[in-house]
Write a structure and sequence with these properties.
The protein contains eight helices and seven strands. By secondary structure, it is mostly helical. Strands 1-5-6 form a three-stranded parallel β-sheet, with helices on one face. Helix 3 packs across helix 7.
């Protein structure tokens, strides 16, 4: 387990793990994949659908307002548009996507279409919290709506910030097979949920707990999902 956590938390290659733990490459490979299988099973307990007692947000990850991921689908290689990921996820019964009841909705960003069950912000109107901090208070119903929307949806930006900071392997994935990569992604979200649910005193959760804007590292993230299409 220690070898596995060091690999995912520090994105270390087998050579460095071999030197640190003084085990053969075969032993490291064997136990890494044994732990990975166990963690995928663990994810079924840690990533559970939303209850819809409160609104949730984010696609193809659903995240509640406690920064706990309630749904994760990892099925696409390379760069895939968010809208395509959402449509294919909903339409494929194997994904068991938890559609909200008629009176509930998910908050989504402008990359998605505003439709039943999915509430998107107004387009061509200020949206990001940094826009309001630098450009003054919201003016008009569209900007007021967008500011409230951004403040609520900001939780998934913060949740992703915690996951990516804790698991650098998600930013630069080791060249495992795609199947192994998807399992690693699920494992990272499972550990994130576990730590949040047991209310452990954690520096990263504390650091990202405030309403801070975690805008995309590149301007295109609002238009497409990157590797492994979370």
């Amino acid at each position: 387990m220690a070898m596995f956590l060091m690999t995912t938390s520090y994105n270390l290659r087998n050579r460095m793990i071999k030197n640190r733990f003084q085990h053969s490459s075969q032993t490291i490979h064997k136990y890494f994949h044994e732990v990975l299988v166990a963690m995928v099973n663990f994810s079924r307990e840690m990533i559970t659908p939303p209850s819809f007692n409160d609104s949730s947000n984010g696609i193809s990850n659903l995240c509640d307002f406690d920064m706990i991921f309630r749904y994760v689908v990892v099925r696409w290689e390379g760069t895939t548009y968010n809208s395509r990921v959402l449509i294919e996820t909903i339409c494929n019964p194997q994904h068991n996507f938890p559609m909200p009841p008629s009176e509930k909705y998910y908050l989504v960003d402008a990359a998605y279409t505003h439709t039943r069950g999915f509430m998107a912000p107004y387009r061509n109107v200020r949206y990001w919290l940094s826009d309001f901090r630098s450009g003054g208070k919201a003016v008009g119903k569209e900007e007021i709506f967008n500011q409230c929307h951004a403040r609520l949806r900001n939780v998934i930006e913060r949740a992703f910030g915690v996951v990516k900071a804790r698991f650098p392997i998600l930013k630069r994935m080791t060249p495992y097979s795609f199947t192994t990569q998807t399992k690693i992604v699920m494992t990272c979200f499972s550990i994130h949920n576990f730590l949040q649910q047991i209310s452990v005193a954690d520096r990263l959760f504390s650091e990202y707990d405030n309403e801070v804007e975690l805008e995309s590292d590149n301007a295109n993230q609002n238009q497409n999902s990157t590797t492994s299409a979370f």
